[in-house]
Amino acid sequence: MTGVLPTLPPPRYHAAMPTCYLDWAASAPPYLDILQESAALAASDYGNPSSLHSTGKSARTALEDARAVFGRVVGAAPERIVFTSGGTEADSIALLSAIVAKGQRSIVISAIEHAAVFEQARVIEELGVKVIRVRPGADGVVDPGAVADAVRPDTAIVAVMAVNNETGAVQPIDRIVEAVRAATADSGRTPFFHCDAVQGLGSIGFDAAALGVDGAAFSAHKLGGPRGVGAMYLRKSITPLARGGGQERGVRPGTHNTAGAWAFSRAAERSSAARAESFIRARDHERALLDGLRSIPGAAPLPLSRRPGDDRYSPYIVCATFPGIGGEILARLLDEAGIAVATGAACSGAKKERRVLDAMGVSRELSFSSIRISTGRDTTISDIDLFLERAAAAYARYRV
Amino acid sequence: MDALFLIKIGEIRLKDGNRAEFENRLKRDIKRRLSSFHSELTSREGRYYLKVDEENAAQAEFALSRTPGVNGWARAVKTPKTMDRIAGAALDAMAPLAARGISTFKVESRRSDKGFPLDSYGISREVGGAILERFPAMRVDVHNPHATVYVEVREKAYVYTDGTSGVRGLPVGSGGRGLLLLSGGIDSPVAGYMMLGRGLALESLYFHAYPYTSREAWEKVRDLAANLATYSGGMLLHTAHFTEVQLKIKKDALPEKTTLYLRACMMLAADMLAKRRGLNSIVSGESLGQVASQTAENMRFTGAYTDLAILRPLAGTDKEDTIRTARTIGTYDISILPYEDCCVLFSPKHPVLKAKFEEERAAFDALGFRDVVAEAVAGVETVELPFTFTPPRAAEVPR
């Protein structure tokens, strides 16, 4: 690379301000004590859990302890839990098993799946497997009947996410599972039901037994654990595409991340214990956010019909539109004002996909101008107020 | 000093009256680019000879490949002073040329070591004979050869052939100094490169409209300018903050006229800055018909806001040729990075295609953009991008 190139001075809009973090759905600040303890564990229990000697066995103990703890959090027996390198890997292990499934040549997914499922499905499609995509309603929620109707006799996998990462729409997983089972009961060939619960676990929780899914994907860093760790719930066995040393029952080969799994289990446990109380606060934040958005002339939540306290939405995620200013531009201005939010739209957004909002039938003008505000355990009402104040100011100044 | 380059100059040789001035400029340009290490540049019979240490040879080649006025250069191979070794080096040099299908050649020899047993004619004859023997399809043509093999016998022997093409054209600055309207796109860096090759020294002007354009967009333009700086021997990049201008256009102008008026405001700003900086021309990457609004009528309208020469080297260039040049000069991969330099918020769906000159001027002037543009020009921020052997590249890993 070259030497140090000159840069522009900071924009005049910029002022040194404390960061107000409203992008929890992208990644949550980690629990510091758990991170520190897991670093100590990584140093002490460095053995390979697959080794037969006592150093390895010690690591194995920590790993199995993590599995038991995590299993309790998601309502599953420890042997149903497989640790992975993250949510994306957990999704792809499930999805790619469709390639090795014999005689079953289609999969059904919702049109609003995270890229970890949606893009993986495109690859599977290129390999000759039919991919059927089920659109949500205008509210962003997928209809159980629509999923059941899409399933064919040769469908290997049905995948619907727990909570949409852009809109916060909570999918009725239990009812979708039920509808799919009912529709396929006569054929005797029930497809494998996979649920990407990456946004669900830390927010609305996840109960494998109650939902009735066959598999699910989780990610540690969304709920205060470390990056690079995830997990799968597997009620049924699957045939994985990738093979290796047989770890995690062969489903996820590769040397275990003992400390990561341990930290994930503890973060999940802690987040789970605080869920009920945290959820009430999140509903308050949601109310302040939605009411505040509606008081900014021109701004609105997406979908436009969303009201506070609606069970169809996770209170932790709000999609908002500010017509007349690109979502990326507003996110940039907010960043300069010390507020971190997310956007899917680039400046050239009109040319780009806004897949989830498109699928809901949201107009390009609104989707192009949208940002995502997501809250978490440390969020306070004053964070919401600060966001509203600065978003309103930036919007008034720069909308065109 | 064991790396020797023979440098050929092109168009300068055709200059009669002020050839010395052109030559001095070119020599100074070469020396300046190599100022970070020791080099010797001498000239003889319309050829330049550059000597640098072996460890700096790659840098010297880089500099020569990016100095307008240099037509081409050849790296000489140094051999011991025996005819076997000299002929061997000549055969090595000819092999790739023969493989390319070159069929006629001549050998030009010089002998400054008068103790060498053969005179220059004898050297040429021996080397030519060896080439004919190895490559039977070759013929000697002393008047119009496809390739020339040069042999010089000095303290050592040097062998070289015609070598690599340079930028050609005229030394930077021989055509005065102009202002390049540099966007983040593919065209404007190529337009700048072409004018640099015609001897026009350049400063660049970028219109930044934060927050509608991002810092990444500015950094992309900076990296483009830094690449152009390797051809110009350093470059000033001026940044005009155009947010207020854009907002005023959006507020006051009819939607279909926003693109046209923005271009007129840019021209007005360029005119003001160029005059402040004492520049003689404005360089634009416009190409006739490339987008619907790049019409002769629209160029006439925007051109009315400066009385400086507007140089549009791409006006008649095919886009594919522009892209090829952009790849050659190393700006293409940066230009295609996805940071837009002009936000869709300001782009009308149906822009004015053929501005009616008198009518449009009156309408534009009535809206009074001069003050807000002057303010942007007054607030221009300038950074200097020096010549570098390692210009920035587009990051290989996406962010």
Task: Give the helix/strand layout.
The complex is a heterodimer of chains A (400) and B (399).
Chain A (H helix, E strand, L loop, with lengths): L19 E2 L10 H13 L9 H21 L6 E4 L2 H14 L5 E5 L4 H12 L3 E5 L9 H7 L4 E5 L13 H12 L7 E5 L11 H4 L3 E5 L10 E5 L23 H16 L1 H21 L4 E3 L14 E5 L5 H10 L2 E2 L14 H5 L4 H5 L1 E5 L6 H18 L2
Parallel strand pairs in A: 1-11, 3-4, 3-5, 5-6, 6-7
Antiparallel strand pairs in A: 2-8, 7-8, 9-10, 10-12
Helix pairs in contact in A: 1-8, 2-8, 3-4, 5-6, 9-13
Chain B lengths: L2 E7 L9 H15 L5 E6 L2 E6 L4 H9 L4 E10 L3 H17 L4 E8 L8 H15 L4 E2 L6 E7 L3 E4 L3 E2 L11 E5 L5 H11 L3 E8 L6 H18 L2 E7 L1 H10 L5 H20 L3 E3 L12 H8 L5 E3 L7 H11 L2 H4 L21 H11 L2 H9 L2 E5 L14
Detailed description of the structure:
Chain A has 400 residues and is of the alpha/beta class. Chain A contains 13 helices and twelve strands. In chain A, the strands form three sheets. Chain A has a seven-stranded mixed sheet with strand order 2-8-7-6-5-3-4, sandwiched between helices. Chain A has a three-stranded antiparallel sheet with strand order 9-10-12. Chain A has a two-stranded parallel ribbon with strand order 1-11. In chain A, helix 7 (208-211) links the parallel strand 6 and strand 7 (215-219). In chain A, helix 1 (32-44) runs antiparallel to helix 8 (258-273), helix 3 (87-100) runs parallel beside helix 4 and helix 5 (144-150) packs parallel to helix 6 (173-184). The longest helix of chain A is centred in the N-terminal third of the chain and has 21 residues, at 54-74. The model of chain A is unreliable at 345-351 (pLDDT under 50). Helices cover 40% and strands 21% of the residues of chain B. Chain B starts with a strand and ends in a 14-residue tail after the last strand. In chain B, strands 1, 2, 3, 4, 5, 6, 7, 8 and 9 form a nine-stranded mixed sheet that branches. Chain B has 13 helices and 15 strands. Chain B has helices at 19-33, 57-65, 83-99, 120-134, 187-197, 215-232, 243-252, 258-277, 296-303, 319-329, 332-335, 357-367, 370-378; strands at 3-9, 39-44, 47-52, 70-79, 104-111, 139-140, 147-153, 157-160, 164-165, 177-181, 201-208, 235-241, 281-283, 309-311, 381-385. Chain B has two domains: 3-165, VC0802-like (2-Layer Sandwich), CATH 3.30.2130; 177-385, HUPs (Rossmann fold), CATH 3.40.50.620. Classes of the chains: A alpha/beta (400), B alpha/beta (399). The interface between A and B is medium-sized, with 27 and 31 residues.
